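Anyone able to model this chain together with adenosine-5'-triphosphate?
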Amino acid sequence: MKKNKNTIRPLNAAEMDALDLAVKVDDVTMVFNMASQQLNSFKEYFIAFAKRELFFKEFVALDSVSFEVRKGDVYGIVGTNGSGKSTMLKIVAGVLDPTKGACSINGNIAPLIELGAGFDLELSARENIYLNGALLGYRKQYIDEHFEEIVDFAEVRDFLELPMKNYSSGMIARVAFSVATVIVPDILIVDEALSVGDMFFQEKCEKRISELIEEHNTTVLFVSHSIEQVERVCDKAIWIEKGHLRMNGPVEEVCAAYRSMRE
Ligand SMILES: Nc1ncnc2c1ncn2[C@@H]1O[C@H](COP(=O)(O)OP(=O)(O)OP(=O)(O)O)[C@@H](O)[C@H]1O
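re: yes, here you go
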């Protein structure tokens, strides 16, 4: 359960169980402070700070957004660029704390956000699998037992000893997806993670996600710019536009409305 600074209280696991919920986003607002001028170096920043010329303007990335995700739901999030989809997922994953409102989570999360962010690119893939595994909370013995499975899924066996700085973005995504889904998460968060993989790997990931959904009732939150992919993978969707929740409902209805806005 995430900390929260404001009046709306996140629900505890028992309360979430009673409602059969995996995720509850309650009146969430996220405000970012953005520098009002461009400063290109620490020196410029320091001078502006000393002259008291450092100004910020507030940017509301999410404005009073609420929705509930039941256990086993597969929810897509659609919306145009900069509408707040990734910000929403980061709040659900606990990477960001909302400025207002509360986000309650029921279960362990595998966040596939900013894939490879936990990797040290100077290290080899072998070392990074252990490093990333430890960051996700797995014991070394667990990674030892699943190492072959991770490498086979990622299809990087021939490059295991190569520093990951020499990997392509698609290869990094393969390793990250593979490590993150080797356990069965209660909640899987996928943010454009698959877009850098080639179509064969994307198909493989979709299959793995379907397995998690069908065999383990994993709850999924899925952001993709491919409406077709959202329709294929998800059963429900929300549409966030410029920080506002525009629609929440069955995936076909939400995607149809979103498409008609673009036409
Ligand atoms: N750390 C930050 N500081 C300032 N502004 C931010 C920060 N993170 C996101 N934003 C702003 O919040 C808005 C929403 O960003 P977000 O990445 O959530 O959008 P998105 O819907 O995922 O976009 P895209 O489809 O382009 O990936 C954008 O205008 C972005 O510039």
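The mean pLDDT is 88.
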